[in-house]
Amino acid sequence: MVGNGRGILAADESVATMNKRLEATGVAPTAEQRCAYREMLLTTPGLCDSISGIILSDDIFTAQVSDGRPFPDACREAGLLPGIKVDTGAKPLANAAGETVTEGLDDLRARLELYASAGAAFTKWRAVIQIGERLPSRRALVANSHALARYATLVQEAGLTPIVEPEVLMDGSHGLDRCEEVTQTVLHTVFEQLAEQGVVLEGTVLKPNMVLAGSDCEPRAGTDEVAAATVRTLRSTVPAAVAGVAFLSGGQGVDQATAHLAAINALGPQPWELSFSFGRALVDEALQAWRGDPQRTGAGQDALVARARANADARAVWAAPAGSWPGRAQRRSAASCRR
Ligand code: 5MM
Known about the structure:
- By secondary structure, this protein is of the alpha/beta class.
- It has one domain (7-318): Aldolase class I (TIM Barrel), CATH 3.20.20.70.
- Helices cover 45% and strands 14% of the residues.
- It has twelve helices and ten strands.
- The chain has helices at residues 15-24, 31-42, 58-61, 71-77, 108-117, 138-157, 176-196, 223-237, 254-266, 280-290, 297-315, 326-334, and strands at residues 7-10, 51-56, 81-85, 89-92, 100-103, 122-129, 161-168, 205-206, 244-247, 274-276.
- The strands form two sheets. Strands 1-2-3-6-7-8-9-10 form an eight-stranded parallel sheet. It has a two-stranded antiparallel sheet with strand order 4-5.
- The longest helix is centred in the middle third of the chain and has 21 residues, at 176-196.
- It is globular.
- The protein starts with 6 loop residues before the first strand and ends in a 5-residue tail after the last helix.
- Bound molecules: 2-O-methyl-1,6-di-O-phosphono-D-mannitol (5MM).
- 2-O-methyl-1,6-di-O-phosphono-D-mannitol binds at residues 10, 12-14, 17, 126, 167, 248-250, 278-281.
């Protein structure tokens, strides 16, 4: 999932989020267009050179592409591992104003059996942490980390790979230091709970936020500062046994997310692969180029593959002799991702 310089495409928007994004692009928010959009993404020629897997939501995972194949089969035939988001969303945490806990544990064991038999290779669960004057509370951190750990054990029991995603939101006017402090506390709590529940770290992918100043904070932190704070945070909290790290983009602009990924990787090899599992920062340009028009499928796909390659190249920077991009060359010659 995180090897060979590749990343994971997060295309698991809930129906409500997907509808909003389609409407903002002038596309009708229908089930047909939600499927057509994901089909445009996953049938992109050459996508598997830089993308290893794609995270889908339940409504898409259980649907068919236009030629009648189930989405998970179409993914595998395109050389992409099919993944599924299994949480049911962040809901208000009782007696904790402004905070949420992610739900979905109740029937998870049964749902995992169904997803595994339909071909899922991996799963995702996202916890959402808000920074505020007095947030996050210890209660919200423990509740969300406990749920992530319960989720990850169930997924491993089902023979699948869990992506554990504790997202510290960028919303707010806090500075880089505050994000670093909160992200460290969040990751400490998550790994404590993963240990309590006996989660096998070697079979777990962490999907964290980069350490960023809040979106309303001025002046912005520089790219190198972000990279240093992010790597420092991971090195002080993430056990070396973790299979890999795949960052979310969290509302960063597409170029900014790619630049941060390159700067993070430029700091040299770490105990884990430092990959990407972007949603918006991978697909925004493709959605704009496609705009729901079947005649523009190629334009959407060109935009997606270009951005996916840029991010894969960003992962290769530390290994590159000056002026060259060996990661890309290795991936091209591998071209064996199609099964
Ligand atoms: C693609 O969006 C995912 C689902 O979000 P909703 O359930 O809120 O619709 C989301 O979990 C996504 O995978 C992560 O936030 C990473 O996406 P970004 O765009 O932040 O990289």
